[in-house]
TrEMBL record:
Pfam families: Cons_hypoth95. This is Putative methylase RP545. SUPFAM superfamilies: S-adenosyl-L-methionine-dependent methyltransferases. Keywords: Methyltransferase, Transferase. It comes from the Bacteria. GO terms for molecular function: methyltransferase activity; nucleic acid binding. PROSITE patterns: N6_MTASE (PS00092). The keyword Chaperone does not apply. Its EC number is 2.1.1.-. It comes from Petrimonas mucosa. One of its GO terms (biological process) is rRNA methylation.
Length: 182
């Protein structure tokens, strides 16, 4: 796993063979962050990474300057890998949580500037994730939620939908909570 930009730029963290995650490809991740660079002030952004897998997105967020990144991952091997990567990098801005994303979404009351979700593509409940996040009002005003998914899903009918971008077989749907004008 390679960190693309920021204070940990070009750092490679070897991913053990026992991890079963489907990490976001470097190409798709780099494209995603190129888009986000134009929308986000990294040093002022609190972020939530759901279904974190190897933690590549969460570590990229920390590397780019996010002062507070929570990532949620249920698999013990993946969670342990993320904790080791955090320790290796000295990433004190990263707060890994080992737990079920759906239970976490039921209990969380905090709002974030950026939320990223990359559930397993074969997860039966994948289609419910965006609505759960949006209904919980987890985005701050001006916040962005990015959902990674396969071509089988279309979320353009949901509230706060902004756009969908495609990078090979990876699809990112963007939702934005626009700041209300007085």
């Amino acid at each position: 796993m390679r960190i693309i930009s920021g204070k940990y730029k070009s750092r490679r963290i070897p991913v053990p063979a026992n991890l079963k995650a489907r990490p976001t490809t470097d190409f798709a991740r780099e494209s995603l962050f190129n888009v986000l660079n134009n929308l986000i002030e990294w040093e002022e952004t609190t972020a939530l990474d759901l279904f974190s897998g190897t933690g590549s997105v969460a570590l990229e967020l920390v590397s780019r300057g996010c002062p507070y990144v929570v990532n949620v991952e249920m698999n013990a091997n993946h969670y342990n890998f993320i904790c080791k990567a955090k320790e290796l990098l000295g990433a004190k801005e990263l707060f890994p949580i080992r737990g079920d994303v759906f239970k976490y979404l039921q209990s969380v009351h905090q709002q974030f500037d950026l939320i990223f979700a990359d559930p397993p593509y074969d997860l039966p409940e994948l289609g419910t994730v965006p609505l759960l996040v949006l209904e919980k009002n987890l985005l701050k005003e001006g916040g962005i939620f990015v959902m990674e998914h396969s071509k089988e899903y279309n979320f353009s009918h949901l509230p706060l939908f902004k756009e969908e971008r495609k990078y090979g077989s990876v699809h990112f749907t963007f939702f934005e909570k626009r700041e209300e004008r007085p």
